[in-house]
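Final report, results section. Input specification for complex C-07:
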Amino acid sequence: EAGVAQSPRYKIIEKRQSVAFWCNPISGHATLYWYQQILGQGPKLLIQFQNNGVVDDSQLPKDRFSAERLKGVDSTLKIQPAKLEDSAVYLCASSLDVREETQYFGPGTRLLVL
Amino acid sequence: AQKITQTQPGMFVQEKEAVTLDCTYDTSDPSYGLFWYKQPSSGEMIFLIYQGSYDQQNATEGRYSLNFQKARKSANLVISASQLGDSAMYFCAMRELYNQGGKLIFGQGTELSVKP
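Structure output:
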């Protein structure tokens, strides 16, 4: 069974530029999560989707971050414009549904904002 | 208030010995789950073990076991017979079914180094 796929694996941009990350969850998983992991910390949830609907985006900085999951499968997370403090690893995870306990993570995208 | 506390920023263990990584949690939700994930230098989070709040027995998965003490709100990970490949960051996480909508809340992590 294929795992969670993410691209790109690494991205370097200058502040005020925009960037987009892509995630394809495990086949059949209805729930998709985007986490931000700043160096030296545990991951923090940015947004959670159930199919193509948003369940929780309370910690998403909506003035610069946006995410979509239009067809209920893959998802895109965008940052526009990026700030220095957005440098982090962006992890995508999926689970069968919102009641399913275990979330499976992708390899992450390492973002460096200069 | 910190929901998940991992008090050991770094731990060393000799190869083939057992090691315990500490985790305490705080919740008022009667139904919750506790998880341990491993994060090697490559960056992905690898699921290791899960314990539900109503589970009567401690969870075990191969060389991993979870020492669940509900009254003390602790969920320590025990790795038996450590291997060099166990060197990584280890994160404890909690999922509250009612209070937080099911999202995972992570601790700060413990960096484990296995010495040959």
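Chain A touches chain B through 25 residues (CB under 8 Å). The mean pLDDT of chain A is 93. This concludes the modelling results for the funded period.
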